[in-house]
Design goal:
By secondary structure, this protein is α/β, with parallel strands linked by helices. It has a single domain, classed as Bira Bifunctional Protein, Domain 2 (BirA Bifunctional Protein, domain 2). The N and C termini lie far apart (38 Å).
């Protein structure tokens, strides 16, 4: 399978979500990996979460830059994390947990050299734990198949299927993740290349995908989308 390492400019949270959705809907026949470049702090929350519960637990630094994701899961702050997404053919695998396990097992193993104690969580709850305000928060406690380190959960993600195409959105939460971005991005890229037998080609996001993302960005900014549940 071809491996495309997609370059994209700094975007706010609405542009990031729109670009991921547009790429997934384009149904590429390659494995696409994209590392986010953030235009300011942000937070995202899962597609099915209730906005009233989410608002109680949002990080103060993300005010005005909060988006409902196209994927599930809980609230994720994007203040100093390394955020990335993968879009790839499902290859007949139906269960999201199987994709999740494969992605996290590969990345967790490669991260051991950079993050002491990195390992896959083999047990835990079935969903992101609820915080004191009621909304599920991805990094409150680990669940099965998350990646852990000595400090607790460091990598979580969420998956959505678009027909035979998988969209995975992940967040690596380390205090120095962004200063170490080059090192950590290289580790993630190596892990996925080895697991899927890829040779990366570094390319810009296709023009058609960027155009679709620009057209779809209004949805992520809209109150209708933000407050739909």
């Amino acid at each position: 399978m071809r491996g495309l390492l997609l370059e994209s400019p700094p975007l706010d949270v609405f542009g990031q979500m729109a670009l991921d959705e547009a790429l997934a809907k384009s149904k590429p026949d390659a494995f696409c990996l994209r590392f986010f470049r953030w235009a300011g702090p942000a937070a995202t929350f899962g597609y099915a979460q209730r906005i009233r519960e989410v608002e109680r637990v949002l990080p103060p630094g993300a005010a005005g830059a909060v988006a409902r994701r196209p994927t599930g899961g809980g609230v994720v702050p994007h203040l100093d994390d390394l955020t990335f997404s993968c879009v790839f053919p499902a290859e007949g695998v139906l269960k999201p947990t199987e994709h999740y396990r494969r992605l996290h097992a590969a990345i967790g193993a490669e991260l051991r050299a950079a993050v002491p104690g990195a390992r896959l969580a083999e047990a835990g709850g079935r969903a992101a734990p609820r915080g004191p305000g009621g909304a599920s928060q991805c990094f409150v406690e680990p669940v099965a198949l998350d990646v852990l380190a000595a400090t607790g959960k460091i990598l979580g993600g969420a998956i959505r299927r678009y027909g035979e195409t998988v969209l995975y959105q992940g967040s690596l939460q380390l205090p120095d993740a962004r200063p170490r971005a080059a090192e950590l991005e290289a580790a993630i890229a190596r892990a996925l290349a080895a697991e899927w037998r890829l040779r990366w080609e570094r390319v810009p996001a296709p023009d058609a995908v960027r155009a679709a993302a620009a057209a779809g960005e209004a949805k992520y900014r809209s109150a209708e989308w933000l407050r739909r549940f």
